[in-house]
Structures are given as C-alpha cells and as structure tokens.
C-alpha cells in the first residue's frame, strides 16, 4: 500500500507540474534562458567530456534550452517532458522531443550514452525517485553517464510557488540520501566539480 500511495503522490506532482508548465511555458523559457552563461556552462562541458558516445536523453527538457546546446555541440539529443506545451516549443525549434512521464519512457534498454536530468528530478517524491533512477539505469549503456542536478535540503512536500501562483511538490535531498538512492538503482556517483 505504501508504494501505491507514493506513486499516487508522483502522479499528483506530475499533474501539478503539467498545469504549471503548460500555462507558464514562455515565462519559464525566458526566466531560464541565461542559465548556460550564469551557472550551467562548466557542468554541461564536464558532462559532455565524460560521455562515451553522442546519444543523450534530456530528461525534463522543458523549452529545449539544453537540447539546443547539445545539438549545437554535435550530439544527438532527445528530450522528454511531461508538459505538452514544453514539447511543442521544442518541436517548433526543430528539436526531437516527446511527451512522457519518467516512469513510462518510450525507449529500449541501453540506448543512451548520457542522461541529463538538471533540476527535473527535484519534483519527484522519494519512492518514485527510486523507480525513476532504476529506469535511468536501464537506459544507459555500460559506462554511460547520468548528470543529476539537484537542490540540497530536507524539504519534501507541497509548497507555494509564488512565480506560478500555485502549490507544487518539491523534493530536496541531502547528499547521503542521493547516494543511497543511486546505490539502490545501481548508478555510480561521479562528482562534477
């Protein structure tokens, strides 16, 4: 029963995020467009340097900011987002993106050299997080790399997000919690400095 309740929470979190990102698609795209210059550049470069090949899954691709970057660098990225409007925006930019939730991805095993999940898993409840990480593990080729961008903390639950005038589910994890989840899913941690 506990698993069922946690996956129910996962679905509720997905639906809330779907609403937020379908309504605020353009605002989110504008608010995050400078991320590469402000803070993401070194993390992106280190991730690409570790990849054994060119196939990348951008998990929670949003408006395609990072998909565009990967494409410009000569990689073959595919984006996944639960928000139809975010996927539409990616497709308008001629980027490859599909609508799906993280537990129902339309790919076979061992397909990607890297999975980029920057901030997208900060909205996943802990029980579903373990399942999502297992899915990611199944998608990576041997030696594949997961880039996981998280927010550190202990808060897990619903909180008001003033930018979107609604509550959303947030999951903040301490380093030890992430390590435990990664170990359970068979993923190994490589710290990106």
Return Rg in Å. 16 Å
Q: Which geometry do the CA atoms define?
A: globular
Range of helix content: 40-55%
Largest sheet composition: 5 strands, parallel
Give me the side-by-side strand order of the main sheet: 3-2-1-4-5
In total, how many beta strands?
A: 7
Which structural class is indicated by helix and strand composition?
A: alpha/beta
Order of helices and strands: HHHEHEHEEHEEEH
Q: Between the first and last Cα atoms, what is the distance in angstroms?
A: 40 Å
Uncertain residue segments: none
Task: Please give a structural write-up.
By secondary structure, the protein is an alpha/beta fold. It contains seven helices and seven strands. The strands form two sheets. A five-stranded parallel beta sheet has the order 3-2-1-4-5. It has a two-stranded antiparallel sheet with strand order 6-7. Helix 6 links the parallel strand 4 (112-118) and strand 5. It is globular. It starts with a helix and ends in a 9-residue tail after the last helix. The relative contact order is 0.17. The mean pLDDT is 87.
């Amino acid at each position: 029963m506990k698993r069922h309740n946690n996956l129910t929470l996962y679905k509720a979190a997905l639906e809330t995020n779907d609403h937020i990102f379908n309504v605020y698609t353009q605002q989110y795209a504008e608010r995050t467009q400078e991320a590469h210059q402000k803070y993401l550049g070194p993390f992106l470069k280190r991730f690409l340097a570790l990849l054994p090949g060119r196939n990348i899954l951008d998990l929670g691709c949003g408006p395609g900011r990072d998909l565009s970057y990967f494409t410009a660098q000569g990689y073959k990225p595919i984006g996944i987002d639960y928000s139809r409007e975010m996927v539409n925006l990616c497709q308008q930019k001629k980027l490859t993106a599909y609508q799906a939730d993280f537990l129902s991805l339309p790919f076979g095993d061992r397909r990607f050299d890297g999975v980029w999940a920057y901030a997208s898993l900060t909205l996943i409840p802990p029980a579903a997080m373990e399942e999502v990480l297992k899915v990611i593990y199944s998608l990576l080729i041997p030696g594949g790399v997961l880039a996981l961008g998280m927010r550190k903390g202990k808060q897990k639950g619903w909180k008001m997000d003033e930018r979107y005038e609604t509550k959303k589910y947030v999951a903040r994890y301490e380093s030890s919690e992430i390590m435990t989840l990664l170990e359970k899913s068979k993923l190994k941690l490589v710290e990106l400095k």
